[in-house]
Amino acid sequence: MGEEVGEYQGAYKITKGLLDKYGPERVVDTPITEAGFAGIGVGSAYHGLRPVIEFMTFNFSMQAIDHIINSAAKSNYMSAGQINVPIVFRGPNGPAAGVGAQHSQCYAAWYGSVPGLKVLVPYSSEDARGLLKAAIRDPDPVVFLENELLYGESFPVSAEALDSSFCLPIGKAKIEREGKDITITAFSKMVGYALKAAEILEKEGISAEVINLRSIRPLDRATINASVRKTNRLLTVEEGFPQHGVGAEICASVVEDSFGYLDAPVERIAGADVPTPYAANLERMAFPQIEDIVRAAKRACHRSVPMAATAS
User: Fold this and answer.
1) Residue from 7, 25, 34, 239 carrying the catalytic annotation
2) Is the preceding omega at residue 242 within 30 degrees of 0, hence cis?
3) What string of H, E and C letters represents the secondary structure of 207-254?
4) What is the spatial distance between Cα 243 and Cα 270, in angstroms, rounded to a whole number?
5) How many CB atoms lie within 10 A of CB 253?
6) Are 53 and 28 in contact (CB under 8 A)?
7) Residue 171 in contact with residue 216, Cβ under 8 Å?
8) Could you identify which of 38, 87, 245, 291 might form a hypothetical disulfide with 67, taking C-beta atoms 3.0 to 4.6 angstroms apart as the criterion?
9) What are the φ and ψ backbone dihedral angles of 31, each rounded to 5 degrees?
C-alpha cells in the first residue's frame, strides 16, 4: 500500500508487476496521505495481516511517525505481548541528488533509537531480497530503509540468493571484505564507498576490513567489536547527521567493550551538520566521499597525509 505502487508500477518501479500478479485488493494505490495509509496498515496488522507500507521517500514518513512509533512500535510492550504488529514500512532513505534539504534526510538513527522497531538497511541485491523477506516474516514492525541511488546499481547474485527459501537473519552484519589494519563500518550506499576506499588503501599498504551493518536495530555489536579487537582501529561511515548518529552509537559500543584494544582514536565520518544544500557543489561537500574515507583511515593508521590532500 502506498502512493503509485499499483497502476504506475511504483515511483521507482520497485513494485513493477505486483498489481497484475496479485490484484487491486492486495496492491493498493493511495492518495498522498501518509498518516492515513500508515494508520490503515497498522490497524490491519493488529488484525493479523502483514502489510507492507511504502513511503515514496522516508522524509514523508514524518507525516506518519506517530503511527510508526506510538501505534506500531509500542503496542507489543503495552499489551503485555498480546498484540503483535507484523508490518513493514519501506522506501528510499537518505540523500539522492539535487532534491534539497526536505528530501535528503537519513532516518537510520531516528528509527534506530526506538525500542520495539527493527531497522534494516540493505546495500546489495542479495541484502534487499534476504532482508525484505525476513522483515515481512517478522512478527514485529520493521523499518526498511532503501536507497534511491542504489536502485540503479547492479550486483552479482549467488545461486543461493535466488532460491525461494533464501532469507537473511535480522541483526547480523556481513563482513564484505576482510582486513587486519582498520575496521570500517558502513550501511546502505556507504558500503560501496567503503569498499572502493579499501581498494585504494590496499595499494598504499593498508588492509581495511569493511563491515556492512545490514541491521541498525538490533545492531550487531559482537561482529563490530570482534573486528576492532583484530584490527585495533575503527572508522564509521554514514550519510546521516553526526550528532547522535549511528556512528556515535558504534563508537560508544566499542569504547565500552573494546577500549583496551584501540591503538588510535576512533574516526567518525558523517554528513555535514547542516540541512542538505541544494547546489550540487555544496551537496557533494555535505556528504562523505571516497577520498574522505581514505584520508580518515590513513590518519587512524598514523600515515602522514600531505596538507594538499586535506584541502577539499
Assistant:
1) 34
2) no
3) CEEEEECCEEECCCHHHHHHHHHHHCCEEEECCCCCCCCHHHHHHHHH
4) 9
5) 17
6) no
7) no
8) 38
9) -70, 180
Spatial distance between the Cα atoms of 249 and 236, rounded to a whole number of angstroms: 10
> Would you state the cell numbers that stand for residue 107, as one nine-digit string?
532516518
Please classify residue 162 by burial: count the beta carbons closer than 10 Å to its beta carbon, then call 0-12 exposed, 13-18 middle and 19+ buried. Answer: exposed
Q: How many CA atoms lie within 13 A of 78 on its CB side?
A: 10
Q: Which of 3, 7, 54, 103 is catalytic?
A: 103
Q: Which residue has the cell 513493514?
A: 88
CB count within 10 Å of CB 79 equals 12
- Annotated catalytic residue 34: yes
Written as tens digits, the pLDDT of the chain (312 aa) is: 999 999 999 999 999 999 999 999 999 999 999 999 999 999 999 999 999 999 999 999 999 999 999 999 999 999 999 999 999 999 999 999 999 999 999 999 999 999 999 999 999 999 999 999 999 999 999 999 999 999 999 999 999 999 999 999 999 999 999 999 999 999 999 999 999 999 999 999 999 999 999 999 999 999 999 999 999 999 999 999 999 999 999 999 999 999 999 999 999 999 999 999 999 999 999 999 999 999 999 999 998 665 445 544
Cell numbers at residue 109, please? 538513527
- Report the alpha-carbon distance of residue 179 to residue 197 in Å, rounded: 13
CA dist 204 and 303 (Å) reads: 10
The C-alpha cell at 18 is 505486483
Whether residue 47 lies in the annotated active site: no
